[in-house]
Amino acid sequence: MTTTRSTNDSSTQDNSTHGMGTTGHLTAATAHLHPPRTRRAFGTAKKLVAAYGALSAAVLITVAVLALTGHQVTSFMWGRSGGVLASAAVIYWMTVLAARGTRWAYLRVRILSVLMPIVIVGIDMIPGVCPPWFALIQAVSAVPLAAAAFLSNGSQLRAAFPKGS
What we know:
Elements: E1 2-8, E2 11-18, E3 21-24, H1 36-68, H2 75-99, H3 103-124, H4 132-152, H5 155-160
Antiparallel strand pairs: 1-2, 2-3
């Protein structure tokens, strides 16, 4: 077990790391995360990111089934669907950390939830990169993450992490 101490404004927050997860203790620095509206907003964000992950897993499974049944599947489709699924796992982890009061994780969720849908759709629109059906299901998988972007960049969650905290 490792214990680190970080300073947020004039208060301190202990973070204990156990394996892959991080737990924080409630202090004045994280008390602003506990209003019901903020908890609901983070709960919705986690559900949207989980939906992005589930749809990304469905894309990877579709690619695997097509490959196993003898259809043409490119290495781009394998790499892309696996990478998008991995991004869903990372973004979900950061959303959980943000809901516990980790500012750096919240800032990365804000950025990634905006950028990933743009990147997914943008790359799929390049002619000849992937079949239209693949581009379509990838775009559909990005929709919940785009919704999470609006939520994570909205005033309710931004207020939970004021500048300088």
